[in-house]
Amino acid sequence: MASFNLFDAEEKLLEQAEALRGSLDGTSAVVRGGFDTLLDGYSRSVREQRRLVKVSDRLQAQLATVNQELGRRKAEAEEALASLKAAQESLVQSEKLASLGALVAGVAHEINTPIGIALSCASHLADATAGMRKMFEADDIGVEDFERFMATVTDTTRLILGNCDRAADLIRSFKQVAVDRTTSDRRHFDLGSYIRETLASLGPHLRQAGHAVSIDCPGGIVMNSFPGALSQVLGNFVMNSLVHGFGPGEIGHIVISVDQPDPTSVRIAYSDNGHGIPEENRGRIFDPFFTTKRGAGGSGLGLHIVYNLVVGQLGGTVAVEPRDGGGTCFIVTIPKAID
């Protein structure tokens, strides 16, 4: 509104100048010509200012429209990003549940063997006991019969107890690993023992393919961290080796070694002697949905989950390094205690 008031004042000046020009009729032609030139220039200046104001108003209106459109696009982009993050989180959770499901299936298959042996031994012992009862009732028990029965009892009970202990160990290891993976609680645990428990729960997958596993971890390393996250990391490393590192029929070797670069942290080196990772892919392996096995069992989320767990929940770093002689080596460095 101030600009229009200014133009009103200028219009009044123009009117006064026109009136003044009429009073210059008696002056020299030079004075009137100079006054006319000055008045004409001032009049053009006012018209130009009016034009510029109109252009400015139009540009401001366009800018407001553009800002409004940018705001709308920004809101749409933020909404799309939120939806993408929610979808990605859902896929990550699905991948974790799938990993836990595979763990359950493998442990169930592993437990089936000692339970089956124990059941067969118990059935055999029941038959031997029934036979002995018949001979006892018929008063027809000889020394050899009794010794044979005692040998059967000794062997079968030894097998039953040994296989029940084996099943109990598997159940105990699986229970702890499964609880850790689903609760994300922080607790104290022995690192070497927990690594062995985790690898024991993955044993069916490894033995089925014939792969060997070596664990080199000094005793007495007590962590105050999140064992479930560490179990998920190791499990994803193993499945990455099985899916990408070794081909059908290939027998590989997996090595997990632990050392302490300083008193407050541990370094876990996971390596296999498989096919390795091409150099052009090393910078992308932790990206979500990057996989070289699309349509063949690869989701592209396994190592992305590893990166998020190590960097986020475990407060450490993870990197992939070239390995002499081929294969892959992941280096995970994490603090012994999470504050």
From TrEMBL:
Gene3D superfamilies: 1.10.287.130, Histidine kinase-like ATPase, C-terminal domain (3.30.565.10). It catalyses: ATP + protein L-histidine = ADP + protein N-phospho-L-histidine. Its EC number is 2.7.13.3. GO terms for molecular function: phosphorelay sensor kinase activity. Residues 67-97 form a coiled coil. SUPFAM superfamilies: ATPase domain of HSP90 chaperone/DNA topoisomerase II/histidine kinase (SSF55874), Homodimeric domain of signal transducing histidine kinase (SSF47384). It is an enzyme of class 2 (transferase). Residues 106-338 form the Histidine kinase domain. The keyword Cell division does not apply. The keyword Phosphoprotein applies. Keywords: Coiled coil, Kinase, Phosphoprotein, Transferase. Signal peptide: none annotated. This is histidine kinase.
